Amino acid sequence: MSGIEFYIVVLLVYLGTDLLAAWGLNLEFGIAGVANLAFIVVVAAGAYTYSILSLGPDTGNGGFQQYVLGFRFPFFVAVVAAALAGAAVGMVIGITGLKRIRPDYQAMVMLVISLMAATVVGADSGFLNGLAGLSLVPNPFSSLNSTFGPWVYVGMVAFACLVGYFVMRRFTGGPMGRRLRAMRDDEHAAAAMGVSVVRLRLMSQAVGGAFGGVSGALLVAFIGGWSPGGWAYVETLALLTAIIVGGMGNDFGVSIGTFLIAVLLLQGVQFLPPIRSHSGLTEALGWIVLGVLTIAFLWIRPQGIFRERRPRYRWRLGAGTRAGADSGAGTSPAPPS
Amino acid sequence: MHLLIEAIGFGVASGAVLALGAVGFTLQFGISNVLNLTYGSLMSLAAFLALFMINLGWNVWLTMAIGGLLIGIASVALNRGLLAPLIGRGMQRTSLIIVTASAGIVLQYVIVAVAGPSTQSYGNLQGATLHFLGWTLTTGQVVIILLTVALMACLHLILTRTQLGRAMRATSANRTLARSCGIPTSRVSDIAWFLSGVLCGLAGIALAITIESFDFTIGPIFLVPMIAAAVLGGVGQPYGAMVGGLVVGVVSQVSAAYWDPAYENVVALAILIIMLLVRPRGLFGANWSSRKLLA
After folding, report:
1. pLDDT band at B291 (very low <50, low <70, confident <90, very high)
2. Domain assignment of residue A31, yes or no
3. Which of A181, A209, B113, B279 has the highest local Cβ count within 10 Å?
């Protein structure tokens, strides 16, 4: 397999896993309104779960890394377990958000959880091999022909994205989507209409966490290793930028945003010619552009490139008037569906 | 027992630096009611500006003073250029915290783009080791502790004895009422941001002096214990932040001595989370949660 071909495989796998993660975060932040700055922790939870369930006992491979558990489950079992782990960690993070404190304190708590998770995992070398992280994570296509083995993996990621897309649409569209958006727009009004805010918040964090977990699992199986350096709190900000730029609450927008930021920007800067006197300059430029884009979009166009489309109903309120049906259509009363 | 006393000594030294940063942070928060996460990156900027000046051969304490002034100006620019306009347009708190975090990232990576990602050092500036009261501290640490005490005393005098201080306290408590009393609140804001920026710069350079080897992440890493100190003392309360800095410093060092040094930062993080969830107004603060955002 040529270098260019493999690079395209890498880009496609990154795009697929970033899409899954972005959809998860969009569900939590764009639709349900939960500012989960600790999202990368659920991705890491999925990645670590996949690793410790497929690496085998830690005495193997010369025993150079220490971690808990250590089974050799097949690929699909480990991925499903990663999704469940992501959901569980997501819910735990969500529980801290249940206390009614001002929104930026809540965001701060999530940020601190993210930092704490990275510090604790990095410090305890017996749990998940500390700062060095886990490596030699088995790859399901390593036994296949090396020419199309990687493409088979791309196919698997694409399949996961397809499944993920339909699952996501169930949550972002239809009655559930309306309930989540109602909770985001006005919690008290939603609660008055019978929406159980606590349950919905926890559910959105669990589902978002599951998406993140699968994303992490697919990524670690491809890359083969995972360490605390790879899931710093800035990674959540990169995903947030993708969502904000693309359009929060708009599934298509979020997908385009992920492609623009995660692929074009963060990968594209690696094609800039390296300047010998300054190492790390091109990567720094990528992050600078990312930060500037976030600020610019939040200032000038917070809806993002593709606005969230509010559902429009055909039914009219009174005879001959379109008074109820059009403006802010999401709030107009619809016949029970 | 000896270990405990020594750990308390280290705690006082690190607590002094944390108090410097926390008081600056809490001044900003009190005046504008926004969690400014760019504060950490400004500390990194201060450390690197001082590095540049020290490499030119200037005296370290002079560079500390100049660095503080420069970051004071940068803070005022940050407020006037970015935060005040956004608050004026009614941006939500959650979006503001994302904006300040992003601005912090931009600043950090500008530092990387200019000075590179590798660790730097001022060289060994700490001076001789002193032993007293069972504590083992370097001259540099002692100077920083004394400097912090002096600055806190100055701040106390400004806040209580001068008209500016009264204006700052009034603006912090109720901006609209202060404006109706004829206080030029946007000018008072600028001065408060300048003072807190100076403290931010001094804290960043003090950190770089005591840590000895640092990179562009030094500010953000220490920002969280500073926020913990500020929240512990009550956001918007400078005296609370001073006490908070001392408490966080001592508790972190004592737990590092008795438990595991790698978990030193985790203690500060835990204090922050617990305070935010259990008693957001801190030990000495008033109930700030209901205050609206004010530029």
Report:
1. low
2. yes
3. A209
Query: What are residue A134's phi and psi, to 5 degrees?
Result: -100, 140
Paired residues of B136 in beta bridges: B131
CA B33/CA A103 separation, integer angstroms: 13
CATH class of the domain defined by B2-124+135-278: mainly alpha
Chain B CB contacts of A125 below 8 Å: none
- Say if the Cβ atoms of B35 and A108 lie within 8 Å: yes
In A, which residues are within 8 Å of B91 by CB distance?
298
Is A163 contained in some domain?
Answer: yes
Residue A319 lies in a domain: no
> Structural domain boundaries of chain B?
2-124+135-278
Instruction: Judge whether A25 lies within some domain.
Output: yes
- Confidence tier at A323 by pLDDT (50, 70, 90): very low
Nearest chain A residue (CA) to B227: A108
User: Residue A334: is its pLDDT beyond 60?
Assistant: no
Closest CA to B84 of B186, B201, B196, B199: B186
- pLDDT tens-place string over residues B46-72: 999 999 998 888 888 899 999 999 999
Residues of chain A contacting B110 with CB distance shorter than 8 Å: 284, 288
pLDDT of residue A279: 66
Express each pLDDT in A141-150 by its tens digit: 777 767 777 8
pLDDT score recorded for residue B234: 86
Give yes or no for A232 touching B (CB within 8 A).
no
Q: B112, A284: Cβ pair inside 8 Å?
A: yes
Our count of domains for chain A comes to 1
Q: Would you call A125 an interface residue with chain B, using a CB distance cutoff of 8 Å?
A: no
Predicted TM-score (pTM) of the model is 0.88
List the domain range (segments joined by +) for residue A113: 3-232
The span from the CA of B150 to the CA of B143, in Å, is 10
